[in-house]
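go over this chain:
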Amino acid sequence: MKHQTQKTALCPACNDSEISYFLKKNDYSFDCCKNCEFLFLNPMPNQTILNKIYTEEDTKAKDGYKKASSRLRRAFIKLPRFLPYAINKKCLDFGCGGGFVAYALSFIAKSSNGVDINAKAVAYAKRRFRFVNYFCADFTELIKSEDQYDFVHSSELIEHVSDINLYMKVLEKLVKKNGYLYITTPDLGHPKVPDNIKEWDVLCPPIHVQHFTKKTVSMLFSRYGFQIVKFYKNKKPGLIFLSKKF
């Protein structure tokens, strides 16, 4: 298939060789790791191609950003959850989109920042919200940065990246020692995932290129110096967790 990297013989999340074919959907093949339960496209689409898909959808709306009002409302609803880790701290929303969470964080943080690869989304955030430093950068730029943060929020991003280890190396670089990282992503192990997983609308390659369980993220994040300190309950099939860098 065009625009795909070479097929891997090892699990990208845990480096184990116990991976095998799982299923095909939309002409994309998923493999699954027996060791850590990681489900991923193999071969994996190139990130450049994926970025072209991701950077258009949310900025098509007439008001400048898709579902802007509800996104902003949800950002402030979540704010009390972030208080113990973000108040008077240097904060970053990694994959900030239209800037809603970074703006909410600006009310409690010492400084609030938002980064995204989508230049249109960053431009929208800069126009709409004040007191936040929004900037556009990709993983290769961020990994070279000397900036570090006490609290990093990264929502619904990890399932989109072609190189999970590059993403983790960026997080390792961005989060200060003893800093906190808040992640959300679809939950492959949730009881509400259909028995026939092909019926799960969240399994939608190439929009989502990989999926995680609690076991997957626990093993993956520990490899990069993070310990998961809390999984949040979720009625919907989504993983929400807080981790600390040691």
In short: The chain has seven helices and eleven strands. The first helix runs from residue 47 to 57. The two ends are 41 Å apart (CA to CA).
